[in-house]
Write a structure and sequence with these properties.
Elements lengths: L1 E5 L3 H7 L18 H13 L3 E6 L1 H10 L4 E4 L12 H9 L8 H8 L1 H10 L7 E4 L14 E5 L13 E2 L2 H15 L3 E5 L5 E9 L4 E10 L11 H5 L7 E4 L6 H17 L3 E10 L5 E7 L10 H8 L4 H16 L3
Parallel strand pairs: 1-2, 1-3
Antiparallel strand pairs: 4-7, 5-6, 5-7, 8-9, 8-11, 9-10, 11-12
Amino acid sequence: MHIGIAFDLKADFLAESAPAREGAPDDLFEEYDSDATVTAIERVLVARGHRVTRLGGGRRFLENLLRERVELVFNLAEGRGSRSREAHVPAACEMLGVPCTHSDPLTMAVTLDKAMAKRVVASAGVPTPGFVVVERAADLARIELPYPLFAKPLFEGSSMGIRRRSRIADRGELEERVGALLADYREPVLVEEFCAGDEFTVGLRGSGESARVIGTMEVEPLLVPREQFVYSLEVKRNVNWAEEISYNVPPKRPRAQVERVEKVALDAYRALGCRDISRIDVRCDAAGNPKFIECNPLPGIAPGWSDLAILWDRLGGNYDTMIGAILDEACARLKLA
C-alpha cells in the first residue's frame, strides 16, 4: 500500500514562530512531534512492505495530499490554531475520500474540548468530576465546587498548562492560577473537582462493538501522597522521572478496582465514537470511585517516552507491534488489504 504520514513537527513551529514566543509559556508547542517519531513510524511501515510518503501538516499536507496518490493516511497531525485543530487532517481526508487512521473529525473535535467530551460521556452515564468552564475572571464568582479543585486549559494536550500547582486549595489559589492560564493560553479554562485517589491511563483499540482494552497503567507517586499528586508536565519532563513516579503495569490496585477503571474507559471510548486506538485518563476520587478525566484519540506515540508506548512495552509488546496494531485496526475497519 502507498501510505502517507500526516504530522506536525515541533521544530517547524519553533522556526516559524520565534517572534511570537516572547512571554509565552514554555510548553506552547509541547504536543507536536519530533522527526525521530516520524522516522520510527516510517521505518515500521516500510518494514511491513508499504511505500511511505511524508505529507507533513497544514497547507503542506493539503498540497501533498492532492499531489500524491496515497491509499491511506497514517495520521499524527495535531493541527494548529483552533479547538478543532485535531480534526483538520481527518476532515480533509474525509472530504477527498482518502482513508485515514485514528478517529473521525467529529470525535477529534469533541475530545479536544475537554468540557464537550465530559458532557458527552456524562450523557452516556460515565462518571466524571464536576466542572465549570471559565472564559473570563468574572466567571469565577459562579464556581460552587468543593475544594480542592484542578485547573487546566480547555483545549490543549500533552499536559500543556498542567503543573504541580494545578491542584488548587482555596479561593486565592483559584484566582491566581486561572488568571495565569487565561493570560498564557488565551482560551477558556476547565476547573473541575480534584480527584484525590489513584491515577490510571488506559489504552484501547478497535471501533464500536469491537473496541476493547489493551491494558491499564497505574501512575503511582513516590514522593508525595496520592491525594496531593499531580501528573504534571514537570514530572513528565524530568529525566529522573523514576524517582517521582512508578508506572505499574499491571496496576498494583485490586483487580476489581482496575475492572471498574477499565469499564469507565471503555464506556467513554464508545460514547465518544473513538476508533482504531486511543488513550483515556481515569482517576479515582477519595472514596475509590473511578472518574473519566479526558480522552486522547490521537495519543502520543514517541518511542520510549509517550504513555501509550510505555504501556505497550510493559505489556510485552514493542514499538513495531504497536504501530502495526494501529495500522491493522484501520485496515480492518476500512476493509483494506
